[in-house]
Specification:
Layout: E1 2-8, E2 11-16, E3 28-36, H1 39-45, E4 56-57, E5 61-69, E6 80-83, E7 86-87, H2 93-96, H3 112-119, E8 125-126, E9 143-146, E10 154-155, H4 162-165, H5 171-181, E11 189-193, H6 197-208, E12 213-218, H7 221-229, E13 233-236, H8 242-249, E14 257-260, H9 271-281, H10 290-298, E15 304-307, H11 320-325, E16 329-332, H12 337-349, E17 361-364, H13 368-377, E18 385-388
Parallel strand pairs: 11-12, 11-14, 12-13, 14-15, 15-16, 17-18
Antiparallel strand pairs: 1-2, 1-4, 3-5, 3-9, 3-18, 5-6, 6-10, 7-8
Helix pairs in contact: 5-6, 5-12
The structure holds nicotinamide-adenine-dinucleotide (NAD) and zinc ion (2 copies).
Nicotinamide-adenine-dinucleotide binds at residues 38-40, 42-43, 170-171, 174, 193-199, 217-220, 223, 237, 261-263, 266-268, 290-291, 308-310, 334-335, 379.
């Protein structure tokens, strides 16, 4: 089959590779019909995520048709499914608490050591996202093996096009969980850093959860315009000082809740960001954490910090004093996708949530390298690339 493989920093290629096979009784094989490139994939593309190997197949946002099932899969051939990016067993202690991204059994036994060493405990598996998260082949391919197919994939009713439901795989539940973690109360003002797909779904979700005002921050005019379309007020961080603007907009109090949907590749010419960049390039640091630092400083006293954004390693200059003195709460994590999928599918079917507005480009899987380059180089124009095998 054809699949998009990582070969190094800024080097991804569509290769011919072996077709996936059923390995475990609960597996199924999916023929991919749509798969998206995620902001998280850019962290791989830029070489920020350790334990990648040349030839690894990328992609964790995908859907398709079931073409083969293991004896213990509950799916049937021909069903259309969206697959959560988190690989979880459904029956361990954490899955029992619906904390699927913390599943104890998502990683193959021989892949557990790295996460154990780095994070204290192994995490759930992730599709197409390095060997630290299981080394699973991803879904930017014609076919993909889905472990625990009796737990993860959600069956899509006939007649609903892929583009409406594809984002159930990751960014829609991620934006939703981000807003839920912000513990929004009616009347709240919520500030969202980053108007990429995650930030834009967080904006929509925050309003649905009762926020009175949402303030969205980015520097790409087209992304800010999308946030405005959902009712957000906006700050362009290249035109205004963010902290000062937020204070002016909230009567000097600060937002009730802040959401970091930027992550470890913060843009902008800020002192801490420049130091992070120097540390990163001299192997003294891993993440550029400007957005979360700024969000903590801007948050009101007693407010809530939600961090859907991905960070990988160690961060310094973290405003721990401000965090403590102001009595803030922080909630974060990879999304417990399986937990949110059913309700969000209903919200899509009932047209309460708009998803297709995000897609700026649809391309053939064969054009994936070009899709990565565009999404990386021109974030103003390119908000989301969806790849469809055989599109042309
Ligand atoms: N928790 C999860 O399970 C999960 C799932 C999906 C994505 N993510 C993470 O969420 C983050 C966002 O994902 P995305 O797909 O929206 O990515 P994206 O790269 O498309 O968007 C990030 C946005 O942040 C903006 N930005 C950069 N620096 C900024 C700054 N200093 N202030 C304000 N905005 C700034 C960028 O201009 C861009 O629009 C990434 O870190 C991604 O890895 C997490
Ligand atoms: Zn993603
Ligand atoms: Zn589990």
């Amino acid at each position: 089959m054809r699949a998009l493989a990582w070969h190094g920093r800024h080097d991804v290629r569509v290769d011919t590779v072996d077709d996936p096979e059923i390995l475990n009784p609960r597996d199924c094989i999916i023929k991919v019909t749509s798969t998206a490139i995620c902001g998280s994939d850019l962290h791989l593309y830029d070489g920020y995520i350790p334990t990648m190997q040349a030839g690894d197949i990328l992609g964790h946002e995908f859907m398709g048709e079931v073409v083969e099932t293991g004896p213990k899969s509950t799916l049937k051939k021909g069903q259309r499914v969206v697959v959560p990016f988190t690989i979880a067993c459904g029956s361990c202690y954490h899955c029992g608490k619906h904390q699927y991204s913390a599943c104890d059994n998502g990683l193959p036994a021989d892949n557990q050591d790295i996460a154990q060493e780095l994070y204290g405990q192994p995490m759930s598996g992730l599709f197409g996202y390095s060997h630290m998260t299981g080394g699973y082949a991803g879904g930017q391919a014609e076919y993909v093996r889905v472990p625990f197919s009796d737990v993860g994939p959600i069956v899509i009713p006939d007649g609903i096009e892929d583009d409406k439901v594809l984002f159930l795989s990751d960014i829609l539940p991620t934006g939703w969980q981000a807003a839920e973690n912000a513990q929004i109360e009616p009347g709240d003002t919520v500030a969202v850093w980053g108007c990429g797909p995650v930030g834009l779904f967080a904006v929509q979700s925050a309003f649905l959860m009762g926020a009175e005002r949402v303030i969205a921050i980015d520097h790409f005019p087209k992304r800010l315009a999308l946030a405005k379309r959902f009712g957000a007020e906006t700050i362009n961080f290249e035109e205004s000082a963010v902290y000062e603007a937020l204070m002016a907009m909230t009567g000097g109090i600060g937002p009730d809740a802040v959401i970091d949907s930027v992550g470890l590749e913060a843009h902008g010419f800020f002192v801490d960001n420049v130091i992070d960049q120097i540390k990163k390039s001299t192997f003294l640091g891993t993440d550029r954490a400007h957005a979360i630092r700024q969000a903590i400083i801007a948050c009101r006293k007693g407010g809530r910090v939600s961090m859907p954004a991905v960070y990988g390693g160690l961060v310094d200059k973290f405003p721990l004093g401000a965090f403590m003195e102001k009595g803030l709460t922080l909630k974060t994590g990879q999304t417990h996708v399986q937990h949110y999928m059913p309700a969000l599918l209903n919200a899509i079917l009932e047209e309460k949530i708009d998803t297709t507005f995000l897609i700026s480009h649809r391309m053939d899987l064969e054009e994936a390298p070009q899709g990565y380059k565009m999404f990386h180089d021109d974030q103003n124009e390119v908000t989301k690339v969806v790849l469809k095998p055989g599109f042309n």
